[in-house]
Amino acid sequence: MIEYIKGEITGLNPAAAVIETAAGIAYRLSITLPTYAALEGKERGKLFVHENIREDAWTLYGFAEERERELFRALIGVSGVGAATAVIILSSLQGDELAAVITAGDAKRLKSIKGIGAKTAERIIVDLRDKLKTDVDIASLPFATTKRPEAYDETIAALVMLGFERKASEKTVSAIFDADPAIKVEAAIRKALSML
């Protein structure tokens, strides 16, 4: 089992990172937006790994922090929440923000995330409320923060890589950039996730 991968970042976009190790082996890992933000602009990186092995695929998921990997593993342990959905959840709500939403029982906030219906939101809250620990007050959390500037095309590419249709993504991203031409990529993707 792979615990973490450390090396040169040879490829990076909001949905995936490629890290080449000292042995010359390059690994492609699916990532969340917080991990993308943590790696952007760096030449080297270290990602904590979760392996998803099936008959037809072996997928690696990478996380800049162990806490995020723990949350990912907790989410995929909930019936009806797959790895792709867990990545979208963690891209929409980061770390303690997600833990606070769950412990507060804020199903409405969870339902605002693409692919999360009322039953799944309630199941996540029931299954994880007592397992997640947080000292963060939900009212103190900024729910739409971002740090990274990126282009319109990269936002669309990230949404397509996350599984959304290109046409719907282009329409949504166009509306977002029309309203705020200076919006940064992470904020644009978050906004799009709640609109698609």
Description:
- This protein is of the alpha+beta class and 196 residues long.
- It has three domains: 60 residues, OB fold (Dihydrolipoamide Acetyltransferase, E2P) (Beta Barrel); 75 residues, Orthogonal Bundle (DNA polymerase, domain 1); 44 residues, Helicase, Ruva Protein, domain 3.
- It is built from nine helices and five strands; from the N terminus they run E-E-E-H-E-E-H-H-H-H-H-H-H-H.
- A five-stranded mixed beta barrel has the order 1-2-3-5-4.
- Helix 8 packs across helix 9.
- The longest helix is centred in the C-terminal third of the chain and has 14 residues.
For the largest beta-sheet, the strand count, sense and barrel status come to: 5 strands, mixed, barrel
Mean pLDDT: 85
Write out the strand line-up for the largest beta sheet, numbering strands in chain order: 1-2-3-5-4
State the assembly state of the protein chains: single chain
The CATH class of the largest domain is identified as Mainly Alpha
Helix and strand content put the structural class at: alpha+beta
What fraction strand?
A: 15-25%
Q: Estimate percent helicity.
A: 40-55%
